[in-house]
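Dear H.,

Thanks for agreeing to be a second pair of eyes. The structure we're designing against is below in token form, covering all 97 positions.
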């Protein structure tokens, strides 16, 4: 059983591949499951990427495609998130005391 549990589609600003194309590729490679993990990084510094996903569109598209391909592959919903500013505070705090 092969699976990929860390995939970014065109819903993340660091990918331009449509979700359905990725699903079709996964099926053709024999994967039994996959999980999309689009970025939702609320504290990401401004710059080249805006790691904020349109959650409604993401969930709607994934749900539609999961139903369409349910006989061929199990598709899971995920989010990759990271709060940089809060983590920096947590990492530096013990050094300051």
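And this is the sequence the design step returned. I haven't edited it by hand at all.
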């Amino acid at each position: 059983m092969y699976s990929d549990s860390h995939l970014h589609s065109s819903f993340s600003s660091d990918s331009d591949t449509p979700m359905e194309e990725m699903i079709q590729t996964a099926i053709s490679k024999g994967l039994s499951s996959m999980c999309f993990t689009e970025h939702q990084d609320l504290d990401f510094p401004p710059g080249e990427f805006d790691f904020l996903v349109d959650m409604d569109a993401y969930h709607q598209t994934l749900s539609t495609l999961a139903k369409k391909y349910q006989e061929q592959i199990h598709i899971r919903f995920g989010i990759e998130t990271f709060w940089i500013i809060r983590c920096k505070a947590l990492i530096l705090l013990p050094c300051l005391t």
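Two observations from my side: The first strand starts at residue 3 and ends at 7. The longest helix spans residues 55-68.

Warmly,
E.
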